[in-house]
Amino acid sequence: MAPSTNKLNVGILGATGTVGQRFILLLAEHPNFTIHTLGASSSSTGKTYKEAVLGRWKQSRAVPAHVADQEMKECVAKNFAQCDVVFSGLDSGPASTVEPEFRSANLRVFSNARNYRMDPLCPLVVPLVNTSHLDLIPHQRASLSPQLNQGFIVCNANCSTTGIMPPLKALMDAFGPLDKVLVSTLQAISGAGYPGLSAFDVHDNVVPYIGSEEEKIESESKKILGSINGPKTAFDEAQCTISAACNRVPVLDGHMECVSLSFQRRPPPSVEDVKRALHDFRCEAQELGCHSAPAQAITVHEEVDRPQPRLDRDHQNGSGVNVGRVRPCPVLDIKFVVLSNNVMIGAATSSVMNAEVALAKGYLS
Ligand SMILES: NC(=O)C1=CN([C@@H]2O[C@H](COP(=O)(O)OP(=O)(O)OC[C@H]3O[C@@H](n4cnc5c(N)ncnc54)[C@H](OP(=O)(O)O)[C@@H]3O)[C@@H](O)[C@H]2O)C=CC1
Ligand SMILES: N[C@@H](CC(=O)OP(=O)(O)O)C(=O)O
To answer: What is annotated as the active site (predicted)?
Structure first.
């Protein structure tokens, strides 16, 4: 996508949070978007951004100078009326009312929150996988109000769901429908937001429970891997069976996921065929030349002990996913490990890339 001199104004809801801080850094020098309005809770309203994040800015880069003195606004639509696009890093509590209020005010919302992911009117988009689902936007508008000619909500997925989608999609495209998928996650602390779990709970420990996470992976995956119907008014879910087991581990950023799967087609592909399909997988965001798209959607690691969170989570600025240890599975067909950066492609980068694709497809005009 060619850098534009007419950048779109963007707002960020939840701008002070774990995901919000990534939005700030991703959008501070973006060729298509310029940060215009920042919002968070009432405890931040009226402060400058740097005052609002004092003691809570957890990035190695400093707060961008042109953002530091911006005044924090209450998250109501009238404060964001000048924004062409709104990125939401809101907690699910406020997201349930704020995001539809913004849509009703004809604002375009790209949300990280879980609330509307399974809404039949809302595209649930992993930008490396199913940007074709953005084509449901006109139906969302038409279904809600004749006055809704610009607004919409587009969601990105749960961070653990997001990580496994590119490899599953690559294998479905190459070898036909999947039959069964088992996934066990090792999820980073930052997935729980800031301050997240206490050190007492997570240090020297593994917690084998993350509320609702397994259910979200199992349901969201089928919507993302499904297709939209001919008239672009509904989703047909993918038919495979998915079982997830989720664990919190003492890693700061980067979700690791151990996947075993089987194909419907017999005989199944070889390990070498699987590696080639993963490596060759390309997505629409790449074809459109979107600014945030990784050069390589799936990086296949050959070293026996990679990928690892500390070493590989920042590869390509966390915009792609990493796969390693591709090998035969004696129970199902194939097994491998996936590493994705939960706060980048698992959250903020997905929203930004979704907006870049929406811009290229004309949904932001
Ligand atoms: N962390 C991750 O890896 C991922 C997170 N998500 C989702 O993204 C969203 C944000 O998560 P995360 O950044 O981790 O959460 P944080 O807890 O770190 O940040 C929450 C943000 O929401 C703001 N906020 C809280 N209450 C209100 C309110 N009543 N009105 C307006 N703003 C409010 C906070 O503002 P203030 O600072 O003023 O309190 C803060 O900016 C959540 O919905 C989460 O489920 C999705 C994928 C991955
Ligand atoms: N639950 C995820 C992060 C998250 O916020 O998920 P969701 O957006 O689906 O609530 C984790 O703890 O790693």
So the answer is: 159, 255
